[in-house]
Design goal:
Blueprint lengths: L1 E2 L10 E6 L10 E16 L7 H12 L3 E10 L5 H19 L6 E8 L6 H13 L5 H10 L8 E9 L2 E15 L4 E9 L5 H13 L5 E2 L9 E6 L15 H21 L7 E9 L2 H13 L1 H8 L5 H9 L11 E6 L2 E7 L2 E2 L4 H8 L3 E7 L5 E8 L3 H8 L4
Parallel strand pairs: 4-5, 8-10, 9-16, 11-15
Antiparallel strand pairs: 1-6, 2-3, 3-4, 3-10, 6-7, 7-8, 11-16, 12-13, 12-15, 13-14
Helix pairs in contact: 1-2, 2-3, 7-9
EC number: 2.3.1.35, 2.3.1.1
Keywords: Acyltransferase, Amino-acid biosynthesis, Arginine biosynthesis, Autocatalytic cleavage, Cytoplasm, Multifunctional enzyme, Transferase
Main location: cytoplasm
Length: about 400
Amino acid sequence: MQIIDGGVTAALGFSANGVACGVKKRKKDLALVHSEVPCSFAGSFTTNLVKAAPVLWDQKLVSSSPQARAIVINSGNANACTASQGERDAEAMAVHTAKTLGLLPEEVLVCSTGIIGLPLPMDKIVTGIDACAKVLASSREGAREAAKAILTTDTFTKEIAVSLEIDGKQVTIGGMAKGSGMIHPNMATMLSFITTDATIDKAVLQALLGSSIRDTYNMISVDGDTSTNDTVLVLANGKSGCNALSPSHSQWEAFTQAFLYVHKELAKAIVRDGEGAGKFLEVTVKGAKDKQSAQTLARSIISSNLVKTAFFGSDANWGRILCAMGYSGACFDPNGVDLFFSSSKGTIQVVAGGSPLDFDEHMAKGILLERDVQTLAILGDGEGEGTAWGCDLSYEYVRINGDYRS
């Protein structure tokens, strides 16, 4: 696998772009992603019972439509909690995009992100779709502008692309994402769009996406909130010419690892851009009873507001970590825990066999003052291992979300 410079247009046959249509002030707010040929596709969506209208539209297509050709995305307005009008507007976005690109409405996926509870300004959306369709491009710049148009409180775009050889053909996977706040395990306030020129059946792709999400987007946390619009969509158009990929293919493992890498890097980029975040936190649990237990423990640690605030203050308050492990719901032996903090400044052990160590507080402070901090908990219960990613919780987070609508 090779990491390349690219986004959603890196794979053969895909074009994209982004425009400003007036949903947001002075910023790009509408993007299109288009495939020149039909795609197999897969989707995963928010676990929130309150689902935005675009989520309902996309869920219907994932369950009933055999193929997709395009995704239309607007930012600045979530089209959530907008009742039947919101559902009509989501469908209208698909219908107008289909008409503009010469597709069927059931070939167009729809996503929205932004403020909840306001009707979409459909006149602006329609104008934006028309404008964006005219500038669709397979270039790097087209991907970059689309990535800009899907942002809300994000401070940077999130893109990734990789390539690998399968059946003697160059296969590419590219993607873009947005997400900054309302990020929590079981997906987040996030959108992620993946394109690939691999050949893969829809059912196989859906199963692969489900397994990949468990180890990526479901292992990140910014603030403990799960949104109404969380969506991950994957389009595969087969333009590479490789043979159909499935678990029986000799290079299936190589493809799945590349696919997982793309999702993991996008998930980590979302956490790095957490609203008001000053630190990127990685928590790994080893020696748990099984993988599920390890992931549960890691998620509990990274999701704890008390743990987040301790990291914000660069305070080696390891008791909060053991506390978060204790209420996680996973079974483990507290008397078998070894706990370490690491960063570019070094590594320090603070707990051994469940007992506190007399560690150097000054050294610990120096380690925790760094931008990237790792926590390692080693248990003695089995071979299970899991990693979660998160960020600290700062004064700036409160400021950003205190005046989000203002």
